[in-house]
Write a structure and sequence with these properties.
Two copies of one chain form a homodimer. Chain A is α+β, with helices and mostly antiparallel strands. Chain A folds into three domains: 8-79, Winged helix-like DNA-binding domain superfamily/Winged helix DNA-binding domain (Arc Repressor Mutant, subunit A, Orthogonal Bundle), CATH 1.10.10.10; 105-131 and 233-347, Beta-Lactamase, CATH 3.30.450.40; 138-231, Enolase-like, domain 1 (2-Layer Sandwich). In chain A, 46% of the residues lie in helices and 18% in strands. Chain A has a five-stranded antiparallel β-sheet, sandwiched between helices. The radius of gyration of chain A is 26 Å and the shape is elongated. At the A-B interface, helix 6, strand 4, strand 5, strand 6 and helix 9 of A face helix 6, strand 4, strand 5, strand 6 and helix 9 of B. Chain A binds a DNA duplex through residues 27, 29-31, 41-45, 47-48, 50-51, 61-67.
DNA sequence: AGTTAGCACTTAAACAAAAAGAGTGCTAAA
DNA sequence: TTTAGCACTCTTTTTGTTTAAGTGCTAACT
């Protein structure tokens, strides 16, 4: 999208209005803009320009005789302008890295910490998302004898993650039966997706296990569970209380709906699943298909690991969020997180940030 | 605590006031009480009694010429009266069990589902807590060769939970070295708590591993991490948006503080760690040490498994929450959850609800 | 002595009218 | 093309008034 249509002065005015509104939250009038410096003309001129900007759809007027407020298009112009030039002032980066490093752990944990951090640095609501994995398979199984009535299945996924599950059996089991089970699972259940696990297959496996066939049912069910569970996708958020500081959320109805949507998860999950470039994405208000977001914007960045999107971190806030700051912050945090989980090649003899993916 | 001081009529009035206030949310006047049936005297009499109840501290007046509102003591009386007699009308139990069973999985997941359920059934905010485990040890280790630069440690805790962690090494490893590592860990690191793992011990282990000593450092660090991580304690909540329906939270400041406390976690965690009977606990307003709770009540029940508290589920809501309903609901859900995770003896050949404890 | 009816009093909430303020659109002059 | 000025519009704030609810108290009643 190009904005050639806008004269240089209009751009300046629009930018001034957006920033003033972000700052103060209230409609901004012609007088304020001219006082702000930058422009060397009178308020009347500004008024004329603003009237035109309104007609073009960049500004809105809550009512006659109120100042102007940026429309969604206005915000869009603003952030598009920003992304080309936003300055990577790396002053809080130290803090970012410190906080993240001190909390290294499973990927879930990193994402959650990142979300917290995003919230803290921006004063909006931070979100962290583990996207739905389209289709996952197991690349290897290990089975551990736990006690006479329990065994543990260790599954290594095609993405190299490790999942475990304890399985309880009705009849007692032996070390030997456990080994046979492992061999069987490795022989028949590697590399196939959840929907390929059907009854005939199970029956066949049961037969192969002979008198220990009872182990199969439980084991397969549990493998199936894990496969679908990983598929799930998950959304964490933190710092909702931050939103309460912004008057646009003082209407409890709107806030309630937003919170509801957040808890539903699915909608937001779909939202970020759609748009994934490698960069920071900005969804402004009704640009997203989620109704409830009409009053809010979402800034997020996918986290890639070996080219695969393993997570999304971002920030949710009012339409008039401080995009300049937020864009920078999310980009930085995203970078740090990617650094932490992405470098599969950098070996240092230290514990690697767990790929354990631990259940939920 | 005994309430002999209260005449039968005072009790009736108090109960009527509490229930009317819970129902409507507004101060209740003498007239309303008498209209409500139950009492066969005039409003003037009620007024006298209410004045006395106020002096005794059971009721409060927002201002002269408003009706009365229960004080915290008033609520306390009410719930204490309730617990002796609340009727276990088991009508939604079916739903409870159904929902819980359909979502069986790790204990974390069960707790989260339970929290959601609690929220849905009560229309308040549901909470689920995994308490801090005081001191944990490992009872057995298994080590799995992953690839040349990675191995997986499977740890079985003293509580019978399973944790795994993938460890990356600088130098390449063999199947044989992995087996030696397992033997070593089992020989030296079973049954000892995190603080017993010190440098001399590590050095000794390194020596024992010979040329594969580099594996020790990473492995031990990771074991240590898991031990302390489990210790963490965790709080999940759901249905905060429910709170917005209650006028007491329309003051965004109060709501914000409450949300902040919820996200802090530590305070609530301490709170429920303190009081643990086997039954439903009720913390009314400032009875709890958390300042922010002045306006809210917390109803919760510990979940025990083999005598050990493995979780807490509960509900957070306004002072005037519908205790009758909530008490019953939490008791039921608590019971169902306990059934699901508690019966280590009931064998049925099905997958047991995972004890995996999956990391965060 | 306990209960009731009646009434004066208090206070918050609801309503209405008026005043203030902010900002625009438009016209006419520079 | 810009600017100054002014009338107009609409919201917000203020102020005053009314209404309604509910109490406390006194005096009569059982």
């Amino acid at each position: 999208m190009f904005y050639e249509e806008l004269s240089e002065r209009k751009k300046t005015i629009l930018k001034a209005v957006v920033e003033a509104h972000i700052e103060g939250g209230e409609p901004v009038g012609s007088k304020y803009v001219v006082q702000n410096g930058l422009l060397t003309c009178s308020s009347a001129t500004i008024r004329n320009e603003m009237a035109e900007l309104e007609q073009m759809g960049y500004l809105e007027q809550p009512h006659t005789s109120a100042g102007r407020v940026p429309s969604e298009l206005g915000y869009r112009f603003y952030v598009d302008m920003l992304v080309n030039q936003y300055d990577t002032v790396t002053k809080e980066v130290a803090q970012v890295n410190h906080l993240l490093k001190s909390k290294m752990g499973e990927i879930d944990q990193i994402l959650e910490t990142a979300s917290r951090l995003a919230s803290k640095l921006t004063n909006y609501t931070g979100i962290a998302i583990k996207p739905k994995a389209s289709s996952i398979t197991m690349s290897r199984y290990e089975v551990i004898w736990f006690d006479e009535n329990n065994f543990v299945i260790v599954m290594i996924t095609s993405h190299g993650n490790v999942k475990t599950k304890k399985v309880k059996t009705a009849e007692s089991i032996t070390q030997e039966s456990v080994e046979r089970l492992a061999a069987l699972l490795n022989a028949h259940l590697c590399g196939i997706s959840a929907d390929k696990i059907n009854l005939p297959l199970i029956v066949e496996l049961e037969k192969a296990m002979g008198s220990d066939g009872f182990m199969i049912n439980a084991a397969v069910k549990c493998i199936y569970d894990v496969m679908s569970e990983i598929d799930g996708g998950e959304l964490r958020y933190s710092g909702i209380n931050n939103l309460l500081n912004y008057p646009e959320y003082s209407d409890t109805r709107q806030l309630g709906e937003l919170l509801g949507t957040l808890e539903e998860q699915s909608q937001i999950l779909d939202l970020v699943s759609d748009a994934d470039s490698d960069n920071v994405n900005v969804l402004i208000g009704s640009e997203s298909s989620v109704k409830v977001m009409n009053n809010s914007s979402l800034v997020f960045k996918p986290i890639k690991k070996n080219g695969r999107t393993v997570g999304v971190i971002g920030v949710l806030g009012p339409l008039r969020m401080d995009y300049k700051n937020v864009l920078r912050t999310i980009d930085e945090i995203g970078g740090s997180v990617a650094d932490m989980i992405g470098d599969d090649r950098k070996l240092d003899g230290k514990v690697k940030e767990g790929d354990n993916d631990g259940g939920k």
